[in-house]
Amino acid sequence: MRVDANSSQSNNFDIIRFFFACIVILSHSFPIGTGSNDSEPFFMMFETTMGDLAVAGFFTISGYLILASWQRRKSLFDYMRKRFLRIYPGWLTVNLLTIIILLAMSMISLREFLNWIPGILILKQFETSKAFATNIYSGTINGSLWSIPYEWACYLVLMGIGFAQLLRSPRRLAIFTGVVLLVAAAINVGADIYELSVHPRLFLLIKTSSFFLVGSCFYEYREKIEFHKTWFFVSLAGCLLAGLVPIVKPLILPVAMTYAVFYAAFQRRICFHHFGKYGDFSYGIYLYAFPIQQMIVYANGGSMNPFLLFLLATPASILAGIASWYGVERWCLPRRRRRETANLHPSTAGSDQDNSTHLSTDQFN
């Protein structure tokens, strides 16, 4: 099965991202509810969390969709405007709402809030030891926000390699991506064997961009890559190998996981192509879930069973994601696209006509 390059709306990206957002809630329920990841199933087996894998999935899908947006840009300003409107409105709103609530609860001071305001413009997280001080996982207001600056950085990386002419052919992008994977692997080997270290932010940039760039490569080769059940199981085996043998993880996991995610995204037998016809709620769910979980644990006395926390926090987070979409994110779309989204219905949402192919990238990413 090959991807139909002219039918970018016929995919399961919306439901997959919704699923990833819920997995992040489940994963965060362990440290927020118990104080550590020690009882998190994936962490116990592979020393990586379900949340880490879900965030990696977000980056690989983003790499696919954002390269499509880059190639359709009218200008550099057009590209950056879309990227800004995708990240900043939701970011600003969740931060301001969270800080206002914490001010009302006297967990932070007005002076702390005012001193932090300049940081919001550079995607800096606000943290204070006073926040949720009675919680077992105290001092962290919104642990999910760490990935947002790296998502923005990946947008800039894509722009940079575009200017460097590395996007003029799929082969150039593939070579550059391979170099990034090798650098990530070298850092991993250096840390495990030679106890070398790099700056944590640089390490996270390389780690996240490796998934983003592999996703971009899948877009470039979308007309040549075939998705077969056999290779899907091989990719799952590769993910398992990466978990069991951490030293090869930076090389294997981005490619194996990306294949598995896109195999699910372009399934024809199991189709949820219209899942996002009312909007893309995954970004809002991701933004609001962590503080909602902290508030629930705070109201419960400071700790909670992770699975109970997940069951309580997920519906509230989904409602917050819906409110974020209809109250903030949707209004940052161009007026034409807002009208198109409002008019989508099952009989036309998957159509390849008019602007439906644009909706799958510019609207939701």
UniProtKB/TrEMBL annotation:
Q: Which UniProt keywords apply?
A: Membrane, Transmembrane, Transmembrane helix
**GO biological process: what's one of them?**
polysaccharide biosynthetic process
Positions of the UniProt region annotated as Disordered: 343-365
Q: Which residues cross the membrane?
A: 12-33, 53-70, 91-110, 148-166, 173-190, 231-248, 283-301, 307-328
Which GO cellular component does the record give, naming just one?
Answer: membrane
Where on the tree of life does the source sit, at the highest rank?
Answer: Bacteria
Q: Where is composition skewed (Polar residues) in this entry?
A: 344-365
Name of this protein: Acyltransferase 3 domain-containing protein
Source organism per entry reads Blastopirellula marina
In terms of InterPro entries, this protein maps to: Acyl_transf_3_dom, Acyltransferase_3
